């Protein structure tokens, strides 16, 4: 575990505009230049170090949690994690936009440079662009805007409830510590507890990302007037994956697919073939999560990088299996293999997350937490009939 991060300044109205806003604004300008084509390469190259510096400055100098909550800001520390992740994503995507030989093009020509660049800036999966070629998404929701909004609002409400209940259970099992409870003397029971907490953390992550996808989908379609086809599902039932390749390349979210391919897979494929490309993609993913964990204010943990590298090793092993047998990993045995590999190595990811304090954070105010109401209801029912 590395040392704690340095003290950052609370977010203010002034620092929001002179520190937080410049990186995404400059990245937007970079997207304008990228759409204009290869003749702008020199300008993009000149703009790149400015974006990298401004993003770094925002990540290390701003404290959004203290800006909103001066007393016990640790309960909102995940806002700093989100901010650091956003700045790191700006850096990754700026590198891709600067050096990529592929000119961003909409699949449907609109000839609206300013709006197209805005879409490219905030459209993480680049849906509707040539940059998303080969990306897999789950079954589409209704394309009629009203039906889409109803379905998405329902999904949002359900996942808020699921997340809050899972988070509540995690807070009971691991309020401030990691997934391991060394006070449990029985190794088997200690292992069972760590496995349960690991699964809960994974489900919390899934629900949180789903909540974000639903919320932004409602904003995009309901407020901005975008087509619902521009907001395909974030996930495709990852618990049904029958291989690690199926899980990571198709069913898990593909928000950073182009970054992992451009910055990790393609360069290392040139060096070490497909195995190198696979490990390269997962390495960039691990670095993304490593940096994001640093945003929680308690240092970071290299184990999150190890977790993703091990996932890459699993995908490579599936490739060897296909070569040996002529068949892909699939079916119920592939499902068991995927579950054992992901959950078995899961503590490398879940333990640092719990130790970082994210499970002790406040996402829903206690007076209106559904989980608290359900807990009280269950307690009252138990007392009544006991």
From TrEMBL:
Pathway connected to this protein: Secondary metabolite biosynthesis
Subcellular location: Membrane
Keyword Membrane: yes
InterPro entries membership: Wax_synthase, Wax_synthase_dom
Record keywords, A-Z: Membrane, Transferase, Transmembrane, Transmembrane helix
Pfam families, per the entry: MBOAT_2 (PF13813)
Transmembrane segments: 12-29, 41-58, 78-96, 276-296, 302-320, 332-350
GO CC annotation: membrane
Family: Belongs to the wax synthase family.
Record-given protein name: MBOAT-2 domain-containing protein
Natural source organism: Mycena sanguinolenta
Source lineage: Eukaryota, Fungi, Dikarya, Basidiomycota, Agaricomycotina
């Amino acid at each position: 575990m590395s040392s704690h991060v340095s003290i950052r300044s609370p977010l203010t109205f002034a620092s929001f505009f002179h520190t937080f806003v410049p990186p995404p604004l400059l990245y937007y300008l970079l997207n304008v230049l990228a759409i204009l084509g290869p003749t702008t390469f020199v300008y993009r190259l000149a703009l790149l170090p400015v974006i990298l510096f401004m993003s770094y400055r925002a990540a290390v100098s701003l404290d959004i949690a203290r800006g909103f909550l001066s007393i016990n800001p640790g309960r909102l520390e995940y806002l700093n994690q989100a901010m650091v992740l956003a700045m790191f994503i700006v850096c990754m995507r700026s590198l891709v936009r600067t050096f990529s030989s592929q000119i961003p093009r909409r699949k449907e020509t609109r000839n609206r440079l300013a709006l197209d660049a805005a879409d490219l800036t905030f459209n993480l999966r680049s849906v509707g662009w040539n940059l998303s070629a080969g990306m897999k998404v789950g079954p589409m929701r209704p394309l009629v805007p009203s039906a889409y909004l109803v379905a998405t609002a329902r999904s949002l409400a359900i996942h808020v409830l699921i997340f809050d209940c899972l988070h509540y259970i995690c807070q009971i099992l691991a309020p401030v510590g990691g997934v391991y409870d060394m006070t449990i003397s029985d190794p088997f029971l200690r292992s069972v507890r760590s496995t349960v907490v690991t699964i809960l953390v994974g489900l919390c992550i899934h629900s949180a990302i789903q909540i974000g996808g639903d919320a932004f989908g409602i904003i995009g379609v309901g407020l901005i007037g975008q087509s619902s086809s521009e907001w395909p599902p974030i996930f495709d039932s990852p618990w049904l994956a029958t291989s690690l390749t199926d899980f990571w390349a198709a069913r898990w979210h593909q928000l950073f697919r182009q970054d992992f391919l451009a910055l990790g897979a393609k360069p290392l494929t040139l060096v070490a073939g497909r195995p190198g490309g696979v490990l390269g993609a997962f390495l960039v993913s691990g670095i993304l999560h490593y940096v994001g964990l640093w945003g929680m204010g308690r240092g970071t943990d290299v184990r999150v990088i190890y977790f993703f590298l091990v996932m890459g090793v699993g995908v490579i092993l599936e490739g060897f299996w296909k070569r040996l047998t002529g068949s892909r990993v699939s079916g119920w045995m592939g499902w068991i293999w995927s579950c054992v590999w992901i959950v078995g190595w899961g503590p490398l990811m879940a333990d640092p997350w719990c130790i970082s304090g994210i499970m002790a954070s406040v996402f829903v105010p206690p007076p209106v937490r559904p989980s608290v109401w359900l807990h009280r209801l269950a307690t009252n029912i138990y007392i009544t009939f006991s």
